[in-house]
Structures
1.
Amino acid sequence: MAAVTAHQTTQKTLGTANAAGGAGSTAAAGETDAAAADHLAAFDAAVAADERIEPRDWMPDAYRATLIRQMAQHAHSEIIGMQPEANWITRAPSLRRKAILMAKVQDEAGHGLYLYSAAETLGTSREELLDKLHAGRQRYSSIFNYPTLTWADVGAIGWLVDGAAITNQVPLCRCSYGPYARAMVRICKEESFHQRQGYELLLALSRGTEAQHAMAQDAVNRWWWPSLMMFGPPDDASSHSEQSMAWKIKRHSNDELRRRFVDICVPQAEALGLELPDPDIRWNEELGGHDFGAIDWSEFQEVLKGNGPCNEQRITQRRRAHEEGAWVRDAAAAYAAKHAPAQTSPRTPASASASAPTSASAQHVEETA
Ligand code: BYC
């Protein structure tokens, strides 16, 4: 991939329409070319100096649009990703496993919330993003279009899917856009716990009965290749990487991170006593990493087109959950509206003290009413 500077690439976006709006968007109507050029120069200098771009800073429209696309896709992946694992909550083999799995699935909902909130700082709304997901106009990760056929799949998702997610997301903690980078710090800590629970689950199965070992191996066989696809198309087919890396949204290319992930997994598979389903994996002394077999990119493209094993099921379930949750959103909005005047209207010290909670217990009553 040719090296491109933020300056070279953002030059291309100078003069584009101010589509997204928001506090720090591209050339406001009537802004002179000189002022727009100054903004662009300041933006490029900040990116070059590894400074964070914050919501109220000026940014090129294309930078904003790229962030909204990636962050929305990321948030959608978190909430759709709850489905395959939630499928096993009622059938977890022990109370301990059930409690762990429930906590993990709840964490994924939380990740969605952090990411939708971070995306909102770019001038879009959660409602708008969800509408686009439900209408098929925004994507979610290919990986969640595969079924969870056995309990061992919960382990394979934790080990491989969360493992791939961490490999991809740790560099995003250094993303040039502040709210996204900060959201990723907490998400990565939680993903790390998720990865370990998956590894520990698979280890227990691998060291269990012959049937349990076979179940673990079968799950790894089915999740390995789709996990490699999570990193996105190969570099020469990745339409966004060059620009996103120039803007320091992405810090590494798709192939680079995919190779890093394979290198991490090979010794872990050995320790688990499980095989990775790729006879071509071998150490390459010259590269200082592992070579691995060819990925079936036609399968990836089919999944992206909506033809994966569970695309239909996942989006149908998501739309249904949204519709069935309408009353909760309405109730929350009504509650917020009811309490809004007390929070926003100017008050005299006397009236303020009359309505303010006077003790921790009064505060508790107010929050839970
Ligand atoms: N799936 O130019 P490229 C989790 C699309 S959830 C679907 O390389 P980019 C978890 C791409 O959008 C963690 N589509 O794109 C949750 C683009 O399409 P358009 C999810 C994909 O953005 C619950 C086209 O292919 N993580 O951990 O530069 C339970 C060309 O690609 C995929 C994230 O979302 C894919 N895998 O790079 C358990 C990480 N890959 O828009 C676990 C954040 C590519 O041109 N995202 N496409 O039509 C990223 O880091 C980047 O967006 C990607 C792709 C590396 C994924």
2.
Amino acid sequence: MATAAAQRTAGSEADGAPDPVDTTAYQHAFDAAVAADERIEPRDWMPDAYRATLVRQIAQHAHSEIIGMQPEANWITRAPSLRRKAILMAKVQDEAGHGLYLYSAAETLGTGRDELLDKLHSGRQKYSSIFNYPTLTWADVGAIGWLVDGAAITNQVPLCRCSYGPYARAMVRICKEESFHQRQGYELLLALSKGTPEQHAMAQDAVNRWWWPSLMMFGPPDDESQHSAQSMTWKIKRHSNDELRQRFVDICVPQAESLGLTLPDPELRWNEERGHHDFGPIDWTEFWEVLKGNGPCNEQRINQRRRAHDEGAWVREAAAAYAAKHTGSAGGTGHETGATRA
Ligand code: BYC
């Protein structure tokens, strides 16, 4: 391990919480570790604002994973074949797993899952704008896989190099699974695109509806992104929102051609000089409205999430009772130990 991290660890272990006089030294060690591309680990000293930013981003990401289960789960009972149903169930289960890794990563920063879920349920923390759109046809499952998971991978592969160790490590596994998700969506859309004229039209309609919201997933334009500059200095984010959005557009254009589908943007064209595709303006009013809670499905998604949480109370109680029995400790809240007695 390089010097900066060694110093930092030694300092925090020897002294416990740093006294105010020592903070500058810790700050220098932290800055040096980030500059040297070392990982910050849970027991290392870190600035309060770095911790708060990570909790905000990881929580939003975790919430997106579990809310993101809803639009696709909507189609499990109506999948057109056993094979498609098995694939879709596996994908939705993977998303629950991603939520779990991410809530665990947030816990390493001292913020428990209960607190984060409370914030989600009371609207104090966000989840991705993309999941406030409805899944109207079976082709939407394909469009989500291709575009939404594709955008997620583009955004998340650089997070595997995030400066905070537990988040970066969680992202490695998540990205591998997202890659399978993206491929299943692409393959599903290809089958529809090459199918009957009705199936082709259904695939095209889904792509038309999901394209622009997928571009919004990368967040506001750089000049309106309040957190990007600081997050990039800390190497939490490695690229700006606009850089990643451009990368995604450049990846999608040839893929759409192979699919035999078009992207719903008359201004989309290759710009030789820039070496990138130009694309039309994004409706940022729509994005901010969705963030304010006014998207087509915001209310439905959060109500369903609260209901699922309430209906899962008995599982949490049973798990706490089981843990208490096997560790010999009361474990959890009084409510939970009540369940043990019952
Ligand atoms: N939706 O300063 P900015 C997935 C908020 S994929 C809602 O640029 P930052 C999945 C932002 O939080 C989706 N809110 O922020 C895929 C901030 O508000 P607060 C999840 C958004 O953090 C398939 C404000 O706007 N992926 O999970 O530097 C199936 C200003 O933005 C959005 C991740 O979360 C949005 N699209 O950059 C199932 C990846 N964009 O917090 C599941 C990790 C921005 O101050 N996250 N906001 O109230 C990130 O990479 C970054 O957090 C973002 C935003 C690029 C999203």
